[in-house]
Amino acid sequence: MKNKNDKPSSQNLPWSALKSLLDDESKVVREGLEKFLLNNPKEGLTFLLSLGKGEDRYLAKRAQNMIEKLGWIDGAGDFLLFIRSLRYELETGWFLLDRSIYPDLETSTYSFFLDKLADRCRELMLQPSSPRMTCEVINRVLFHEYGFRGARQNFENPQNSFLHQVLDRREGLPITLCCVYILIARRIGFELDPIGTPGRFMVGCFAEKHPFYIDCWAGGRFLELEQMEDKLGVLPDEESGANLLPVTVADTLSRACRNLCRHYAQAEDEANSRLFLSFVQEFEKVHQEASNA
Q1: How far apart are CA 83 and CA 280, in angstroms?
Q2: Which DSSP symbol is given to 140?
């Protein structure tokens, strides 16, 4: 006989019905939802995290806000779960990286700021717009109107590798500036790719017959394929020409973790240096396991 005080199993909980309650403005409904989730913490956190990775950005932000309100924050643990999930998305992943050090970070504030930058780009765009014209608009908004720049005076500062710090301070490393550039482009429906060239991270555009590259460290300077080949000292038919092709989200975030490992080591913060080294090793482990599967 079932005891009336027994908790329902996770299979019987009305998770799909809870989606519509996340944006309910009723205080009674909100309090009831919070109580329900707190009574089912394991399933509740899994449910909210799944919404946070969904395509509905508004619902994802609501789910993230609920996680923060309930205090279900384990920054380093959440980033490790992200690495192991193999479900990689650049913006989600980088904000999770940030929260490994800043667990109370309100990420929706920064997502909305990226929305604002994208909205300004839409205002300036003329139709029809070529890929280069679109990038020129992003350059104007990002580097001229909002003053984003490379962190030349204090390059080794770990703050240059955290996306929310770069958005606050409007300066960062090549890799973080490229991330901002790509996230703005995606918001206006324009796909750009991360290019992990040795020494300096860049953005690649493959929407034309011949690709071109954007050097965010140099304020959005355009580089043609031939210029990139000269810069790297490679020929198109050489194996090393792969440096001119897009890298994955995992590669991008792993490189950011390597940077942080080095920067914290130089700052004699061994604990955080080891933390980011562990993330790099986890990326490598997961990649190896996936390759052997």
Answers
A1: 10
A2: I
